[in-house]
Design goal:
Chain B: This is Membrane protein. The complex is a heterodimer of chains A (about 400) and B (about 900). Chain A has about 400 residues and is α/β, with parallel strands linked by helices. Chain A folds into 3 domains: about 1-245, Metallo-dependent phosphatases (Purple Acid Phosphatase, chain A, domain 2, 4-Layer Sandwich); about 245-330, no CATH class; about 335-405, no CATH class. In chain A, about 30% of the residues lie in helices and about 20% in strands. In chain B, the strands form 3 sheets. A 6-stranded antiparallel sheet of chain B has the order 2-1-4-5-6-7. In chain B, strands 8-12-13-3-14 form a 5-stranded parallel sheet, sandwiched between helices. Chain B has a 3-stranded antiparallel sheet with strand order 9-10-11. In chain B, helix 25 links the parallel strand 12 and strand 13 (about 850-855). Classes of the chains: A alpha/beta (about 400), B alpha/beta (about 900).
Chain lengths: ~400, ~900
């Protein structure tokens, strides 16, 4: 038996955290989710796999992408032509709604319903495979869905498909929370997980595997991206990861003692030479300065990253990198507030940098989903540090920082 | 700070009016419409600016056309400032003069002069009227804190400036109600993009709709194709029905004329009869032809007449014919026997005639010895005779020779020259003998011929003339004559002996020389007689056989009756020969004969069959049969035609046609065709629609608009987040500064609350003794210890609470913000006692700060007794 386990295709979803890209790169970015997914389907066809499991988040429902839907139809038809079944459980991003029932996928596609069901495939080799799974009926599934999975069926193999996250015990377990023990108790031969974008073997024997997404879409989705080709070896299923990403993300830090922008630029160029990338890599670099730049250099710091990208295009291309963020962190200093006692500052900070206050200040902006999402990630402490830096700059009569 | 004079150039109902005020309590008395509210608004407007023209009711522009605005003199830090404000942009044109130093200050100095009190704080705390006193309902710690913040940070100008800058920066980045700030613009951009995306996302709905449409259309197409095929089938069917209608009509007509004819026989019978008849005919014609051929053949082969007759009885005749050789043999035998008999009789008769006595008695035959004796005798006699004849001959010869030898006798033998003639004559005799009947004659003839030939050749030739020995001859003659006499005696002797024998055997009549021969004849006769008997017997037998045979033959062949048996045989032989000839020599004739036989048989059979057939069919003769047959055939034809039409139509079609009529059918056909055409049209439409859909889908799928917009939006959101972060940091930093300042001034709040409690007790004549400030609201404690929230207080009591808080605030914050308190009929809801208490409190406070009380209550001036107090009557000039 041989099958492919993929998840979180997030077809046609935009890349996050970009403010602008060169046209060519932008086109590449736009096509990347498709290109990566195509690699999976190509592999399925090349390997003549017995079936393909897609464990949710094939597309972002909210994106309402025509291209994604059309692409899926095309690919499913390709697999149908090769008589390769596809089993899909929709996740929190592509949770099932009526529209999916309106247009039927090709006959080789099995889509799980909102309740845990088991579909059984009979392979060309004569082996039988039971696959259990479900689709999200809405954005959140907080119930203990795993309990509804049946025990190992009387088939040669039994696979579980689950789009969800390991239970934390907190209130945010909205994604079919499970524990590894829950899964193990089912005595399945393989658990094909989705939702987490980093591929990972949560456990072996049986393999409990997050396929990760085939293409990283944000700066926090670094590392190798792809899917698993799972092959039976005796009575075990052995997952083998293969890469599919056409674009990579990377975060890096550079500490420098440079005091001029020229020196800083040189150091950055050197860094690029020392860190070439195999794939076109969207890189976020944090440059920590140990010494303050001269005042006039500080003034130009705002435009400097853009200038660097423009002038050092060759070096960037050679390193196969593009900077999506270039942060220059000034040396840290404690706030020295004139005329006011430090205790008052602390007292003030205690009042101001609270989630409630931040939320209240953010006010109507929180109605903007993207801003609200950003705010969710920001801790008051981060804000206080940033504010502290800002005050320091003011005390020193500097311009606001660049970030 | 206190206000020294108010000069109204033109404001509300006032123009060119000046009020001088004292630093203490000023009671400005006037009834309703005297201009109390106008004064309050005037102070606010001059200090903080005219309200915008959006609120003309608050601007109090003069009705009489005098110059809008006015001035006031205020005393702060021992300096007298004059603030003049007249109509102008942004809250009016301000002129600020330091009258003490006689310097004209920039208008921007005015807020700084008034700081930290701004319009909001002034209106919230220092300018009281009935309406504003209600604000205590919202009075929370935060409100109080906010007010405190304004005044509490006095002395921390740097930080306030920083906070202001931050706020300004923040405002540049984002204002909740703004339009131009960065984030507002970005948000707007976001909305626009979102709108665009939503529009583009319309494509998504459109896509699903199209897919659904496609699905529906495909289904519809399939249905229509199916329907169309059915409709076409139906229409075709109907059209064919219609086409078949004439045929159907024909069928119908035929069906109507077809009457069931009574027949004793079926079509098959006709065929059978035809067959039988044709068999007869065929047999007849075959027979005729064969007969004709036979006649032809007979004319050539001269067939016996009885042949045909015989043919009929061939089977019976055959065994007879088989006997024919026997019979022929018999006949021959008979003939032979008859011939033999005749011969025998003849011979017997001949012999009898020859030998028999007159009485017919036949001589007896010799015994063997007699015979031998006779033979001896005869031989001897013969020899003697011979000798004598030779002698005679010799004598004759000698005589002849003698004569010949004589010259007269010299002549040639005429015969000698005629050798060839002899030969020819012999030959002729020989050949002629061959034609003679009977072997004996033939032999005799032949011998004669030979003898003649011999004679011709040898005798005549050997007769050579002998003349020389004439003399010798005479001698010879004599000798010979002697010898002749001797011989004659011998002969006589012998003859006597023979005669004796002849007499003994009744052979008297015969010459002796014949006796021996007669002996043979007598033996022969006896044998013949015997033979004759035997022949006669055999003849009798033969005759019987022949008689039987003839009887049998006659029975078969009557024509042969009374005919000679030989003729019968001859005929039969001829018949057989003919048969044999036919059988052996001429296959055609034989075959023909056989054929004739068969023909005859066939004809008989066929005729019998025909007769039987007609009989069984109850038909008298062929004509009647054929009449019936004709009828039936016509019927049959009609039925067949009918059947053919029915077949042509088919059972189903026929059934269909029978259920309808032509008009209906035509109508139905047209309808069906119209339906089909309509469906075809629909199908075309659907097909076109599908093509359009496919095109639209391709367009939607290939359009990158959505993705581009989404990425743009994502990018914009990133930018927005960055901006929002900046804005938030600015705001939070500003807040932080404010909070820090508030913390620094935070210890004043308990003092204010305590002071307010004290004032409240005085105002309520100690009915309430304590105020507590909670995070949410204020609450008060009654003298009996019970707590009341603001909401539980009566309106007047609540207003008293607000007044107490505000007064306390003004008093406590006086070092930082000295501002006159302007009360515009704020105590109307107070009962008389509490109003008096309020007056008393105000009078007391007037020692510390300027209070301008505008009231219609004429009892008020009574509290304003004192050096620092003043009463101004608004209605008096």
């Amino acid at each position: 038996m041989k099958f492919i386990h993929a998840a979180d295709l997030h077809l046609d979803s935009p890349f996050l955290g970009l403010t602008g890209l060169p046209t060519q790169l932008a086109a590449q970015v736009r096509q990347s989710t498709f290109a990566a997914a195509t690699k999976i389907f190509d592999r399925a066809l090349a390997e003549h796999v017995d079936f393909v499991l897609l464990a949710g988040d094939l597309f972002d429902r909210a994106e309402q992408s025509v291209a994604a839907q059309a692409y899926l139809f095309d690919q499913f038809r390709r697999l149908a032509a090769a008589q390769i079944p596809v089993v899909i459980s929709f996740g929190n991003h592509d949770y099932a709604t009526d529209q999916h029932q309106l247009v039927a996928y090709p006959a080789n596609v099995t889509v799980f319903g909102p309740d845990v069901t088991t579909t059984t495939l009979t392979l060309k080799s004569g082996e039988t495979v039971a696959i259990s799974g479900f689709s999200y009926p809405q954005r959140w599934v907080s119930d203990d869905v795993v309990a509804a999975y049946p025990p190992h069926a009387a088939t040669d193999w039994h696979l579980g498909m689950l789009h969800g996250a390991v239970a934390t015990g907190g209130t945010n377990d909205h994604y079919a929370p499970f524990t590894l023990d829950d899964l193990r108790q089912k005595h399945y031969d393989y658990w094909a997980l989705g939702h987490i974008h980093h591929h990972r073997l949560l456990a072996e024997n049986p393999p409990i595997v997050y396929a990760g997404n085939p293409q990283g879409r944000a700066i926090n989705e670094t590392g190798a991206k792809g899917a698993y080709l799972v092959t039976s070896q005796g009575h075990e299923l052995v997952p083998e990861f293969f890469e599919t990403a056409v674009l990579a993300w990377d975060t890096a830090t550079l500490t420098t003692a440079a005091t001029t922008l020229v020196a800083l630029g040189q150091e950055l160029t050197d860094w690029l030479t020392a860190h070439p990338a195999s794939l076109p890599t969207l890189t976020a670099l944090t440059i920590t300065t140990t010494r303050s730049l001269a005042a006039e250099e500080q003034a130009r710091l705002a435009e400097w990253p853009a200038l660097f990208q423009r002038t050092q295009r060759t070096a960037l291309r050679a390193a196969n990198r593009y900077f999506v963020r270039l942060t220059v962190v000034p040396p840290t200093a404690t706030l020295t507030a004139p005329e006011l006692d430090q205790s008052y500052w602390e007292q003030g900070a205690a009042q101001v940098f609270t989630p409630a206050n931040v939320q209240s200040v953010f006010g109507k902006l929180a109605q903007e989903p993207s801003l609200a999402a950003w705010l969710d990630q920001v801790t008051p402490r981060d804000l206080q540090q940033a504010a502290s830096r800002r005050l320091n700059q003011r005390v020193r009569g500097e311009n606001p920082d660049v970030s | 700070m206190y206000l020294k004079t108010l000069t109204l150039f033109g404001f509300g109902q006032f123009h060119d009016r000046t009020f001088d005020l004292t630093p203490g309590l000023n009671v400005l008395l006037g009834p309703n419409e005297a201009g109390k509210s106008t004064i309050t608004q005037f102070i606010t407007a001059i200090l903080f600016g005219f309200p915008t023209k959006k609120h003309p009711e608050l601007r109090y522009e003069p009705l009489d056309g005098s110059q809008f605005g006015g001035s006031l003199e205020l005393v702060k830090d021992a300096n007298v400032y004059r603030v003049t404000r007249v109509a102008g942009a942004r809250g009016g044109k301000v002129t600020l003069q330091n009258l003490t130093t006689d310097l004209t200050l920039p208008a921007t100095q005015l807020p700084k002069l008034l700081a930290p009190v701004d319009l909001a704080l002034f209106e919230n705390v220092y300018a009281l009227n009935e309406l504003r006193l209600g604000t205590v309902f919202q009075a929370s710690k935060q409100v109080v804190m906010d007010r405190l913040r304004h005044v509490g940070a006095v002395g921390s100008d740097f930080w306030l400036a920083q906070a202001q800058q931050l706020d300004k920066a923040a405002d540049e980045r984002y204002k909740p109600q703004g339009r131009n700030p960065q984030l507002n613009q970005q948000l707007q951009q976001h909305r626009d993009l979102t709108a665009k995306l939503e529009k583009a996302n319309g494509a998504y709905q459109e896509y699903w709709r199209l897919l659904q449409d496609q699905e529906t259309a495909r289904k519809r197409q399939t249905t229509l194709q199916h329907d169309l095929a059915a409709s076409r089938q139906h229409a075709n069917d109907l059209a064919q029905q219609l086409q078949a209608w004439p045929t159907y009509q024909q069928w119908q007509e035929l069906g109507q004329t077809t009457t069931t004819a009574t027949t004793g026989f079926t079509e098959d019978d006709v065929t059978a009869f035809e067959r039988v008849t044709s068999q007869v005919t065929a047999a007849q014609s075959a027979l005729k032809a064969d007969q004709h051929r036979l006649q032809n053949l007979q004319s050539h082969t001269q067939l016996p007449k009885i042949f045909q007759e015989a043919l009929k009885v061939t089977p019976q005749l055959t065994p007879l014919l088989a006997q024919l050789p026997t019979m022929t043999e018999t006949e021959q035998e008979r003939a032979r026997l008859l011939a033999q008999q005749r011969d025998l009789e003849q011979r017997t008769t001949g012999i009898e005639r020859q030998y028999a006595t007159a009485s017919g008695q036949m001589p007896r035959p010799f015994s063997l010895a007699t015979t031998q004796q006779l033979k001896q005798l005869q031989d001897n006699l013969a020899l003697a005779n011979q000798k004598r004849r030779r002698l005679q001959q010799d004598l004759n010869q000698a005589n002849e020779d003698y004569r010949r030898l004589q010259p007269t006798r010299q002549r040639r033998n005429p015969l000698a020259d005629k050798q060839v003639g002899w030969l020819a004559a012999g030959l002729v005799a020989l050949i002629g003998a061959m034609f003679l009947p009977g072997t004996v004659f033939k032999l005799v003839g032949a011998a004669l011929g030979i003898v003649i030939g011999y004679y011709g050749v040898f005798v005549v030739e050997s007769q050579t003339p002998a003349s020389r020995q004439l003399q010798a001859l005479a001698d010879d003659i004599k000798d010979l004559q002697a010898q002749l006499r001797e011989g004659g005696q011998r002969i006589d002797e012998l003859t006597d002996q023979i005669d004796a024998i002849g007499t003994a055997h009744d052979l008297g009549r015969l010459p002796a020389e014949q006796w021996l021969a007669a002996q043979a004849a007598i033996g022969e006769w006896e044998r013949l007689t015997q033979q004759l008997d035997s022949v006669h017997q055999r003849l009798t037998a033969t005759a019987a056989t022949q008689q039987d045979f003839q009887t049998a033959v006659t029975a078969l062949l009557p024509s042969l009756a009374h005919q000679d048996f030989r003729e019968v045989l001859h005929q039969l032989n001829q018949l057989q020969t003919t048969q044999q000839q036919l059988a052996t020599q001429d296959g055609e004739l034989a075959g023909l004969t056989a054929q004739l036989k068969r023909d005859q048989t066939a004809l008989t059979t066929a005729q019998a069959a025909q007769a039987t057939f007609l009989q069984t069919r109850n038909v008298a003769d062929e004509a009647e049969f054929y009449h019936q047959y004709q009828t039936i055939r016509e019927q049959g034809n009609r039925a067949a035609q009918c059947q053919a039409l029915a077949t042509q139509l088919g059972a189903a079609r026929l059934a269909q046609l029978q259920r309808t009529d032509q008009a209906t059918l035509t109508q139905a056909t047209q309808t069906a065709q119209a339906t089909a055409a309509d469906q075809q049209h629909q199908l075309d439409t659907v097909t076109t629609h599908l093509a359009t859909l496919a095109g639209q889908l391709t367009h939607l799928t290939s359009s990158g608009t959505q993705a581009t917009l989404r990425q743009k939006l994502a990018n914009l959101e990133t930018t927005m987040q960055a901006t929002a972060r900046e804005w938030l940091l600015d705001r939070l930093t500003s807040q932080w500064i404010a909070a820090t300042l508030a913390a620094a001034s935070g210890d004043r709040l308990p003092k204010i609350v305590a002071q307010a409690g004290e004032f409240y007790a005085q105002l309520t004549e100690n009915r309430y003794t304590k105020i507590e400030l909670t995070a949410e609201t204020l609450r008060v404690q009654r003298a009996d210890g019970a707590w009341r929230t603001v909401g539980q207080l009566s309106r007047g009591t609540a207003e008293q609470l607000d007044l107490a808080v505000k007064l306390a605030f003004a008093v406590i914050m006086q070092p930082q913000a000295a501002m006159p308190i302007v009360i515009d009929d704020g105590l109307v809801n107070f009962d008389a006692d509490r109003r008096q208490a309020a007056y008393r409190l105000l009078a007391k406070l007037g020692h510390h700060l300027q209070i301008i009380l505008l009231t219609a209550d004429s009892a008020a001036p009574t509290v304003a007794q004192g050096p620092t107090n003043r009463v101004v009557n608004l209605t008096s000039e």
